[in-house]
C-alpha cells in the first residue's frame, strides 16, 4: 500500500482518480506552495486586492462570497481572471449543510449561469442543488472547490455532485472539474465533530470519490471503519493556522504550519488573519508559504528551502 504521507504531491496526483485533486496537487508542486488564504473581507475591492496581492504565494484562494456587501457578476469575472493570472484554484467555503428535499429540478433557463449550457439535473432535486447552482452567487459556475458538512447524510453529496459533475466548458465542451471537501473536524473549541463523526465522514467520502476529493480537518484520517480494503488518498485542507497566536476570543484554535503538515499529515494550510492582518502582506505571505512548504519537504524527506 503506498504511503501518501511520504509521497510528493505530484506522485499523488498521478495516482489520483479525481480531477480536482489532480489539478490541486500538481499546482502545489508546480508553484511550490501549500498555502491557502481565507479571504474573509466584506467588499469587492478588498477581495480582489487580496487575490492580486497574495495570488503569487497561494495554491487556493478561499472565499465567503455571501459576506461581500457589493457583490456583482464583475467580481466573479475579475476573480476568475486573477485565478488564471496567478495560477490558483478558487474555493468557496459555503459549508453546505441542508437536508435532502424532493422538489423540482432547477429551471434550466433561470438558475444556470449564463455561460453554462443546460445540464441534465435529476428530476428529484435537493435544496443544495439550488444553493450550489443557482441564486445570486451561482457558486458552481466559478468555484473549483466547495465544501459540505456530512451531518445531513450522503444525500448532500449526491445532490451537490449532480451539479458539480455535470458542468461543461461552453467553449471546449470538456467537463469543468469541480470537487467537494467534507468537513470532518472543525478547528473551533467545543466543536461537535468528535467521536465517530470523522470516521463516518471518511466512510461517506470513500463511497463518493468521483466528487469528494478530500476533507477540511485537523489531521489525516485512517481507513479504520471504512468498508473498503484499500487506502484511498484524500487531500486535507486545514484551517486554524497561525504562527503568532494560539486562538481568538470566539473559540478559534491555532496551530503552526509544522504541526499541521508534518505532525498531523495535512496538505494545505488555510490562513486568514495571519495573512491579511499582517502589516507587511508580502513578507507574511512568504513566511507562511515557506513554513508550510518546508514542513511538506521534511515530511517527504527532501531538503528544506533556506
Ligand atoms: O485564520 P482565520 O481564523 O482568520 O480564518 C479561518 C478560516 C475562516 C473559517 O470560516 C474557516 O477558516 N474555517 C473552516 C473552513 C475552511 O471550512 C473550518 C473550520 O473548522 N474552521 C475555520 O476557521 O474563513
UniProtKB/TrEMBL annotation:
Cross-referenced Pfam families: OMPdecase (PF00215)
CDD domains to which the protein is assigned, alphabetical: OMP_decarboxylase_like
Catalytic residue list: 93, 95, 98
Family the UniProt entry places it in: Belongs to the OMP decarboxylase family.
Comp. bias intervals (Polar residues): 104-114
Source species: Rhizophlyctis rosea
Binding locations of substrate: 40, 62, 187, 252, 272-273
A GO biological-process term: 'de novo' pyrimidine nucleobase biosynthetic process
Gene: URA3
Pathway of action: Pyrimidine metabolism; UMP biosynthesis via de novo pathway; UMP from orotate: step 2/2
UniProt keyword annotation of Lyase present: yes
Gene Ontology molecular function, alphabetical: orotate phosphoribosyltransferase activity; orotidine-5'-phosphate decarboxylase activity
All copies of domain Orotidine 5'-phosphate decarboxylase, residue ranges: 34-288
Keywords: Decarboxylase, Lyase, Pyrimidine biosynthesis
Methyltransferase listed as a keyword: no
Name recorded for this polypeptide: Orotidine 5'-phosphate decarboxylase
Gene3D superfamilies: Aldolase class I (3.20.20.70)
The organism's taxonomic lineage, starting at the top: Eukaryota, Fungi, Fungi incertae sedis, Chytridiomycota, Chytridiomycota incertae sedis
Region span, Disordered: 99-120
EC numbers, comma separated: 4.1.1.23
Domain of life assignment: Eukaryota
Enzyme class (EC, first level): lyase
InterPro entries: Aldolase_TIM (IPR013785), OMPdecase (IPR014732), OMPdeCOase_dom (IPR001754), RibuloseP-bd_barrel (IPR011060)
Amino acid at each position: 500500500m503506498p504511503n501518501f504521507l511520504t509521497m510528493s504531491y505530484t506522485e499523488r496526483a498521478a495516482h489520483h482518480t479525481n480531477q480536482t485533486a489532480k489539478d490541486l496537487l500538481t499546482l502545489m508542486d508546480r508553484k511550490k506552495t501549500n498555502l491557502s488564504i481565507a479571504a474573509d473581507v466584506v467588499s469587492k475591492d478588498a477581495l480582489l486586492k487580496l487575490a492580486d496581492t497574495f495570488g503569487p504565494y497561494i495554491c487556493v484562494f478561499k472565499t465567503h462570497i455571501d459576506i461581500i456587501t457589493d457583490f456583482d457578476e464583475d467580481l466573479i469575472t475579475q476573480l476568475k481572471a486573477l485565478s488564471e493570472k496567478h495560477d490558483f484554484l478558487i474555493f468557496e467555503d459555503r459549508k453546505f449543510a441542508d437536508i435532502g428535499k424532493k422538489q423540482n429540478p432547477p429551471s434550466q433557463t433561470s438558475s444556470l449561469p449564463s455561460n453554462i449550457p443546460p445540464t441534465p439535473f435529476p428530476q428529484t432535486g435537493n435544496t443544495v442543488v439550488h444553493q450550489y447552482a443557482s441564486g445570486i452567487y451561482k457558486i458552481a459556475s466559478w468555484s473549483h472547490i466547495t465544501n459540505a458538512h456530512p451531518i445531513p447524510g450522503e444525500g448532500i453529496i449526491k445532490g451537490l455532485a449532480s451539479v458539480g459533475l455535470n458542468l461543461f466548458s461552453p467553449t471546449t465542451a470538456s467537463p469543468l472539474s469541480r470537487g467537494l471537501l467534507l468537513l470532518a473536524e472543525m478547528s473551533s473549541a467545543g466543536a461537535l465533530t468528535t467521536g465517530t463523526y470523522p470516521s463516518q465522514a471518511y466512510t461517506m467520502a470513500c463511497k463518493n470519490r468521483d466528487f469528494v476529493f478530500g476533507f477540511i480537518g485537523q489531521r489525516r484520517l485512517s481507513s479504520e471503519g471504512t468498508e473498503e480494503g484499500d487506502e484511498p488518498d484524500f487531500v486535507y485542507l486545514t484551517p486554524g493556522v497561525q504562527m503568532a497566536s494560539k486562538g481568538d476570543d470566539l473559540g478559534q484554535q491555532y496551530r503552526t504550519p509544522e504541526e499541521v503538515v508534518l505532525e498531523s499529515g495535512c496538505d494545505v494550510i488555510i490562513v486568514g488573519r495571519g495573512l491579511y492582518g499582517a502589516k507587511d502582506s508580502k513578507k507574511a505571505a512568504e513566511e507562511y508559504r515557506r513554513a508550510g512548504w518546508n514542513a511538506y519537504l521534511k515530511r517527504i524527506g527532501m531538503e528544506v528551502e533556506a
